[in-house]
Amino acid sequence: MTDWWATGTSIAGAAATVGAVGVALWVAIREGRQRDAERRDAEAGQARLVTCRMQLGKIGSRRGSCVIHNFSRHAVVDIELCSVTAVDPATGERWTTAETAGRRTWAEGEPLGPGLSYEFDLLNWVQEGSTEPKDDWMPRGGWHTARIKFVYRFTDAAGLRWERRNDEPPVRVLGDD
Fold it and tell me: For this UniProt entry, which segments traverse the membrane (predicted)?
């Protein structure tokens, strides 16, 4: 009778040990994922503070510009405006910029410091399905009526490359895209 009790308690002890190892493994994995999420959030902290907006041209001007503003406490470099797409709500036409005036890099200018802005002039709009650029295109109801989408990239103070689409969260760019 004592042999069965010894065997039963050994099995129960082994099961408890396996259960404890399983719980410890689950806690370790969960903590690791949480730390990774916190690290990614901290990495994106500066990138979330770099924003882009449309700025209307001077009164009477049909040309607009894109302003990238650095609200962070550190400089950003290698700012690139990848694309600007505007949809005219009156006609439903989609237009993209064929060209922007400038790419701000270490070689071409100073880093964009804290609290500063950089303005890209938007040139040569091309209607979707066409190849003919129009320098003076403007939505029928004015720029304030258009739905505008920006895609821009920059490198933060830690040397990490980021891409943002309008005010969506920044996405890390890995490699040479």
Answer: 6-29
Q: Map out the domains of the chain as residue ranges.
A: 1-43, 50-172
Q: What is the CATH T-level fold of the domain 50-172, as seen in this structure?
A: Immunoglobulin-like (2.60.40)
Query: pLDDT of 8-21, one tens digit each?
Result: 788 888 888 988 88
Q: Is the pTM of this model over 0.70?
A: yes
Rg (CA), the chain: 27
Read off the amino acid at residue 172.
Answer: R
